Amino acid sequence: MTELQEPQGGAPDRRLTVFLVDDHAMFRAGVRAELGAHVEVVGEASSVAEAVSRIAAIEPDVVLLDVHMPDGGGRAVLDAMRRSHPHVRFLALSVSDAAEDVIGLIRAGARGYVTKTISPDELAAAIRRVADGDAVFSPRLAGFVLDAFASRPDVPVADPELDQLTNREREVLRLLARGYAYKEIAKELFISIKTVETHVSNVLRKLQMSNRYELSRWAADRRLV
Fold first, then answer.
1. At residue 57, what are phi and psi to the nearest 5 degrees?
2. What domains sit in the chain, N to C, each tagged with a CATH number?
3. Cα separations in angstroms, 12 against 4, 5, 19, 138, 162
4. Global pTM value
5. For the chain, first and last CA: distance in Å?
6. Residue pair 20/40 in contact by the 8 Å Cβ criterion
7. Residue 149: helix, strand or coil by DSSP?
8. Distance from C-alpha of 203 to C-alpha of 9, rounded to nearest angstrom
């Protein structure tokens, strides 16, 4: 893509600095390898606390931010950083394409949201656009944002019931509503079946429901599936 090429006959543009936040080491290694030709990856973190500390110290141009992590995820990083370091731009990079994840991260201050199916060249271009101040979404995800902020202003983005749930509980709920068995959820999220059962019990208790079928209907009504 032309915007990623260095100019001919002169000094190259300063390479953008990028910081990776994701709790999966193999994924971070893959992103670092793929982006190496386009940007300078200056650091990485696997937890919210580590991310906040290292981003504040390094002050990269763009932070690639995972949405769901065990200790609070991308939203917690944004909440901690947006006032103290408003010049650092954040691009969410997630497996999730759920509307509430997209909207929640944008409301918290992310400049864009792309899914992990994006190609390396497309991701590099998205990083440059975010660094330049643009907002970046795939067409499907942009539709969620438009629905929330423009065409349906009467529908509040905040959902008191949903806000009770942790990020991990939301992930489990979404997969459960899609018809995944506990074993399949455990494999998808790299957790034990016992942990899945605990999350489901917590969700049922918080939402005051008695079975997974009620949860599935509830999730479908909120377009979480």
1. -75, -40
2. 2-151 (3.40.50.2300), 160-221 (1.10.10.10)
3. 11, 9, 21, 29, 47
4. 0.61
5. 34
6. no
7. helix
8. 60
